[in-house]
Amino acid sequence: MWIVNVVKKKLFIKYVVPLILIVVLLIILLFVGMYQAAIETFAGDSESSSGVTSTQGISSDVLQWQPLIEKEMKAQDVDMGYLNLVLALIMQESGGRPPDIMQSSESIGLPVNSLQPPDSIHYGIAHFKASLEKAGVKNPQDMDGIKLMLQSYNFGTGFIDYAKKHGGKYTKELAISFSQIQAVKLGWPSYGDTEYVEHVLRYLVLDDGSTTVPAGDYASEKAKKAVDIALKQQGKPYIWGAAGPNGFDCSGLVIYSYQQAGVSISGRPTTKIMYAGNGNFKPVSRENLKAGDLVIIAFGSQVDHIGIYIGQGKMVHAATDQAPLYKQICTAQIFGDTYWEAHIRGYRRCHRQVKLSHFCSLILSHILLFLFFA
Questions:
Q1: With respect to CATH, is domain 52-205 assigned 3.40.1350.10?
Q2: Buried b vs exposed e over 77-99: b needs ≥16 C-beta within 10 Å?
Q3: Which CATH number fits domain 218-357: 3.90.1720.10, 3.40.50.2020, 3.30.70.930, 3.40.50.12280?
Q4: Element (H or E) spanning 373, and its range?
């Protein structure tokens, strides 16, 4: 009898136990896959309700007007919590370059660029305040109201009346339909900027540390984190060979940003290695380029520079140690700029080499080998 029990025990260990392990691992793999899919779905579909707390990519040409802007906001009793929004708006309107930096002339019935900076700011803040009030913006954290206000700054406050008749909130579809109606009414080929909200918000960072690039425009959730991390390094110095956290060169900024985002990068790859490709980097076409992808650049005969694409034709990169500190780690408009376009050599997408599901698959393969040789 004891021999039978021993045989049964061996058969149980040899066949039943591994079978149970396989079933358990398959269940784990199933739930891991469902969890990853759910994370990607919710990350892509959700919109942040966070407020704006800081800016990104605002030029020195805009920042030079900040004291005058703050003075005017106080004089007109505009909450200083909207300051960053005003700076982003000016960055979009004029880049801070005179004369009419807030493009306020038309709001008071004058030809374009009739106003000099002080008057432009005065009337621009007045128009900004009127748009806030008519849009019913509750506070600097009310992103729904801010989007409606921003589009009305570009279209005129008539857009707010139009939006209130069609749901009450800003949508891109409403902006497009209003633009088409106005263009027909005025006999113009087009009316306003239907992407004005996105164009302004790209210069802002939300209070949860995320950027305002639409979630679906990122290469991955990790890429989104990497972009946010890279943008936060602005103001730090360019240091050749450095990969953070106190300074960076161009490839060092990429490595640091992605490592902090949770991507394990093998070794310390240079721009040339990233361009050639290894386990972390794969080619991607310009047509499929998304925020978080890498832009490879050659100033000479070989690739020697890299940046992280952040959407809207811009990248963030570690530029040079010869510039002022705020321009050493900075953003640059690359698409539509003949200089940058002439030097771009390709694009790469950074990704994790090993996922949890791969790890489980590895364990599963070892179990199968055990069964085969047992």
A1: no
A2: ebeeebbbbbbbbbbbbbebeee
A3: 3.90.1720.10
A4: helix 356-373
CB distance 316 to 247 below 8 Å: no
Q: Which of 199, 317, 330, 343 is catalytic?
A: 317
**Is 360 one of the catalytic residues?**
no
In whole numbers, what is the pLDDT of the chain averaged over residues? 82
Q: What is the dihedral of CA 96, 100, 106, 108, to 10 degrees?
A: 110
What's the pLDDT tens digit per position in 291-330?
A: 999 999 999 889 999 999 998 788 999 999 888 887 899 8
Choose, from 250, 330, 343, 350, the residue flagged as catalytic. Answer: 250
Model pTM score: 0.49
DSSP class of residue 299 equals S
Helix, strand, or coil here: 165? coil
d(CA 367, CA 83): 61
Q: Which part of the chain has CATH 1.10.530.10?
A: 52-205
Active site residue 166: no
**168: Cβ contacts below 8 Å, ≥ 6 apart:** none
